Amino acid sequence: MDELETALLTANKNSLSDVGSVLDRMDAVLGAAVESERDPTGALGRQTVPPEMQRRMGGWVTGAVAAMVRLQARDQDPRVDEMLDRLAALNADIARLTGDAPALVKTWRFTENLTVDIKELSFEEAAFGWQTWVAGVVFAHLLARGVIPVGTDPILELGCGTGIVGIVAAKMGAKRVFMTDYMPAIQANTQSNVDSNQCQHVATVHSLDWSWIAENTPIPKDSATLLPQLLDTNSSFDVIFGADICYELIHGRLVPPVCARFLSLSPNARIYFVTGLRGERFAQDIVQFEEKMTLFGFQPETCLDLSLDALLAQETDSFARNLLNAAFSTLVKQFRFYVYRRIMT
Ligand SMILES: C[S@@+](CC[C@H](N)C(=O)[O-])C[C@H]1O[C@@H](n2cnc3c(N)ncnc32)[C@H](O)[C@@H]1O
Question: What pLDDT was estimated at residue 3?
Fold first, then answer.
């Protein structure tokens, strides 16, 4: 925080490199605040951004936008456009922090012909379903490139958040997608994203709380949005999707039993996960998750670690390259892609 304070005082708003380095520091401070919110152990301590600093960051960003607009009029430099995009994104993050942000709609362009608009909420409204996570973007990218097939079977999506994965699956030709999450505010936002992307004929949004299955907590059977398959113990899916749904220790206990309940016994049935690898601090979450998947009768057919470089190395399409570069400009840089199947005896 001290470094950011110094940078705010000394940086030249007319210099692209000065503005870029202030934005890097702001990203780090805002990112640390979000990470500390996410730390279930509290070991990181609460890293809040004091209201005074939020105001100063907001004021500085507004000043930098004005300087960049002047620079743009003079130089027509494409790097200035990029900087203005970054400033706009940071402005939205700061506004969300202060709780008075308008809804933010992000456009994700996967290929020349595949674009989705995804509305985000605030953390206060939707906890971890507030934004589109990079693992979701990576998952959707793998769908768009055909690495994860949509096939013809109905798909169950767990922890859909803002909905990028289910929506891209629908746009890639899936016949039916059941998108699920557990908070009403998240479901309402996902529904509005499904509607605004014209996927409502294929994708439906439902409530499914993993603890109903893993911990036997009561299912609100009269809920209008309840996943219908919950009420029929014989119904199952041949395809399950999950992006970034293992980010706390407890998810290692919750997600595998949900997969065991819903994945069909067909030898062709598969579960696809993309999970963010958040370094040593969260390594135990991943270990527990993988152990429990084995315990619940699943084996990985694919288990592949992905980085930005690895993904870019396989990518020539400029839209996909831009998408990946934009998505990876956050703290999480490594992902694990799994394809699980049942262990056949
Ligand atoms: C990190 S977010 C990922 C969201 C989305 N898949 C993406 O990649 O953008 C994790 C999602 O899991 C959902 N989730 C967490 N615990 C859950 C539970 N017990 N039952 C159902 N969903 C849950 C959260 O609400 C959130 O939307």
Answer: 80
